[in-house]
Amino acid sequence: RDDADLVVVDVRRDAERAQGWIRGSVHVPVHEIHRRLDEVPAGTVWVHCAGGMRAAVAASVLDAAGREVVAVDDGFAAAAAAGLPVVTSPDADAA
Questions:
Q1: Domain at 69, CATH number
Q2: Is 58 exposed, middle or buried (0-12, 13-18, 19+ CB in 10 A)?
Q3: Whole-number pLDDT of residue 49
Q4: Which residue range is the domain that position 60 belongs to?
């Protein structure tokens, strides 16, 4: 599988995101996803939140908009355990 077109969208609240995020992810809180669809880059979208519920909601909105989407139902805490690059400062995200 070619993941070059993979986009990770973080739909958690601002305060949750401030504590850490997956490097390179796009942040669009779930309550804003319907009006910010144009901010989600092209590609297969993987949506995550803290526990899976908001990811499912956002994924359904993206799917209805014609996007190829995967709702990640694992909690955010599992990201680091899975080896994903989790960062906690804007400077680290640019690295």
A1: 3.40.250.10
A2: buried
A3: 93
A4: 6-88
Nearest Cα neighbor of 45 from 65, 17, 16 is 65
79, part of any domain: yes
Average pLDDT per 10 consecutive residues for the chain, totaling 95 residues: 78 94 94 97 93 95 96 77 75 58
Selecting among 8, 49, 69, 71, the annotated active-site residue is: 49
The question of whether 89 is a catalytic residue gets the answer no
Alpha-carbon gap, residue 27 to 41, rounded angstroms: 11
Burial class (CB in 10 A: 0-12, 13-18, 19+), 41: exposed
Q: Does 95 map to a domain?
A: no
Into how many domains does the chain fold? 1
